[in-house]
Amino acid sequence: ARYWTGTANPDGHVLIKYAPKKKQNRYIVVCMNPSHMTKKELDAFWLYWDTLFINHSYLRQDVLLAKTDTVLRVDIAVDVLNAEPRSIVATKQAGKSLKKKIQIAYQTVTGRLETKYLPHIKGKGATEYYYDKRKERLESGSDYAYGERPMTRFEFRVETERPINELVKLANHFEKFSLSMFDRKALKGQSSIFVLFAELALTRTLDKALEFLSSDEDRKACKTFFTNGLVNIWKPELLAKGRKDELQRVGFLGTKK
Asked: Which helix (H) or strand (E) holds 28?
């Protein structure tokens, strides 16, 4: 394993692990966070990367492995600034599976939503969720650049079988999801039934919240009130373009501009 420490920010350091001697199960792992690296630092890293392969007797044999071997999983994160998890509604297009799914939500001791996992098959683990990124950064002792402004991070996983240099050809998986933010200003001056209904719908789901109402009239009124307060904040096409731009910035598209 090797470390590249050419950035001023420790979060921008890069870990490179490899096992090129093995005839089977060869691997090269690069752990990096380009968001903590400037363009100059990225250019310097790729220069180091090229030099490493030229001068390393074993790695020299595995240039194709590093540049074109198969990527099996891509973890994607989207940060939503000025939004707390307790105000976010995230949904996914229904799949073909008929297996019963569960949804898990974690709250703080004060009842504030902290992390929410989208519906998933019990026992398989959740791969789509959102959480309080500001709280996570502060509790870990990491820097947080936005002061008192909240931030929610939405993460999901994409399974694929593409070479590194073809990641740009991934389908627009952002289209599978929708994210809305509930405008809490709509709660001001409302009766307690609307306030409680909105909090329950945000913590659980809209359908679960509707189950607690006894009359069709109340269900219709509360559903209308809640849906009118939702603002769409999800732009799949812009997010897909941002992903492509980031891959190019990092150097995974064969260019280092």
From this structure: strand 28-31
